[in-house]
Write a structure and sequence with these properties.
Elements (H helix, E strand, L loop, with lengths): L10 E4 L2 E4 L31 E6 L11 E2 L6 E2 L13 E5 L12 H5 L20 H9 L8 E4 L7 E2 L2 E2 L1 H4 L3 E3 L2 E2 L6 H9 L10 H13 L4 H26 L26 H17 L5 E5 L19 H4 L5 H22 L2 E2 L2 E2 L4 E6 L14 E4 L10 E4 L8 H10 L19
Parallel strand pairs: 3-12, 3-15, 6-17, 7-12
Antiparallel strand pairs: 1-2, 4-5, 6-16, 8-9, 10-11, 13-14, 15-16
Helix pairs in contact: 4-7, 7-9
């Protein structure tokens, strides 16, 4: 028997469920109802599509002379690296000058990448310790609303070796489920597809009454006979409404927001690891869009390559040198490779923008961030390259060119506090930051 005292404010509670009781004579009167709380940031109405976030990562930075933006709004000028995003200038936020202080301590790829999304100090030597990344903090808070808390994809396999006393796992993973656990990275498109669609329905399809049954039995045993009838009648009416909603859903009549797809609209990718990097990145980009379109998850990271990576790009005529070595010189071939990575972001944005969700598109309801752990291949991590595309459900103003280089508080984690707030997650501190960026 629970120890709480029954009142008319008592709620029937279960896993992820709370249900108010009807008025019953046996229960003491409650105080006057308080006025409804104001709508908090990140809170969505029943007919609004959810906010989603995707973080794309490209290792080794970008062409030093062509990562820039000038001006504001739809007339903003972009450097050649960012040219693939020209069509999205009115929904783009270019950010200059943010950095992670902890990443400057090792000044090598692993020490600059392992804490990119957390700002946490890294352990060197034989131990692995970073910090829970921003994508996983969000997934742990909102992940129960979808089949998958998050989707973590990659286009280059993890490297378990050690470089200058730092594990290369740091340069292979940007998503961390805990300070000691890199989030499992899926590089096989077919297996990523299976994550999204192979399992059965989630627990959310279960009746809410099944969740609160234990509490309901306790209440029933402690109220009078007339109130027992009233409670039974109330629970039966809830069950009836649930069944009617279920039938309406089967007939396509369910009110409120629904994903534009309830099952994949493309076949499962072929087994194995794609040998063609163009096909590989396009498949992973398509899976990201499909995950958002079906509301299978609302949080995704896509690591396009490793920092200190070994990808080659024969389709660009750049097959003579691996990605990492290319990054050390600002050549026309390095620019070609940079633009190829930015084209993946543009492709995802274009696909999401073609999905209409009420008055907005899926891009308007999403936040896409592309970043790297250094500005260029010379390991300059004092000002990280960051670009955002998408409206975050109407919460992010596009067409902004933001420069924090002369700001004494230019922690990268301030941006993460801002992104988390779009989901209604308000933290006093994340990493080395205590307040969000007011412009984002």
């Amino acid at each position: 028997m629970p120890t709480y005292r029954l009142t008319r404010r008592t709620m029937l509670r279960g896993l992820g469920v709370s249900m108010a009781l009807p008025w019953m004579e046996s229960l003491p009167a409650r105080a006057a109802d308080a006025p409804p709380a104001p709508k908090t940031p990140g809170e969505r109405g029943p007919n609004e599509a959810p906010v989603r976030m995707a973080i794309l990562f490209s290792g080794c930075g970008f062409h030093n002379g062509e990562w820039w933006a000038k001006g504001q709004g739809p007339e903003m000028q972009l450097g050649q690296v960012l040219a693939p995003l020209n069509e999205f200038r009115d929904r783009l936020v270019f950010i200059r000058g943010l950095y992670n202080a902890e990443a400057l301590k090792g000044n090598i790829h692993s020490s600059q990448t392992g804490n990119l999304l957390s700002g946490a100090p890294l352990s060197a030597g034989g131990t692995i310790r970073s910090g829970t990344s921003v994508d996983q903090v969000i997934a742990q808070r909102i992940g129960k609303r979808t089949k998958l808390p998050s989707l973590v994809l990659g286009c280059e396999k993890a490297n378990p070796s050690v470089h200058k006393n730092y594990s290369m796992l740091y340069s292979s993973h940007i998503s961390w489920s805990s300070p000691t656990t890199p989030t499992p990275l899926e590089v096989y498109p077919a297996l990523a597809f299976d994550q999204l669609f192979k399992d059965g329905a989630d627990r959310g399809d279960q009746s809410v009454l099944d969740e609160v049954l234990s509490d309901a039995k306790t209440v029933r045993s402690r109220v009078g006979k007339q109130d027992q009838y009233k409670l039974d009648e109330y629970l039966n009416s809830v069950r009836e409404v649930e069944q009617r909603i279920e039938q309406a859903g089967k007939r396509g009549e369910l009110q409120g927001w629904r994903p534009t797809l309830d099952k994949p609209d493309r076949p499962r990718p072929a087994d194995g690891y794609p040998q063609d990097i163009v096909e590989h990145m396009r498949l992973m980009s398509d899976l990201l869009v499909l995950a958002f379109q079906t509301d299978t998850t609302r949080v995704c990271t896509l690591k396009l390559n490793n920092d200190h990576g070994t990808l080659r790009f024969p389709h660009l005529g750049v097959d003579y040198m691996i990605h990492h070595l290319l990054s050390h010189n600002d050549t026309p071939d390095w620019l070609k490779v940079n633009q190829f990575f930015l084209e993946q972001l543009a492709y995802i944005a274009r696909k999401l923008d073609a999905i209409q969700e009420g008055e907005r598109t899926a891009l308007d309801n999403s936040m896409l961030m592309l970043c790297s752990s250094m500005l260029n291949g010379h390991h300059d991590a004092t000002k990280l390259p960051v670009v955002l595309v998408g409206g975050g459900g109407g919460q992010i103003q596009g067409g902004q060119n933001l420069d924090y280089l002369d700001n004494p508080n230019r922690q990268m984690c301030r941006l993460y506090l801002s992104l988390m707030s779009k989901f209604g997650i308000q933290l006093d501190q994340f990493g080395d930051a205590t307040d969000p960026l007011p412009e984002v």
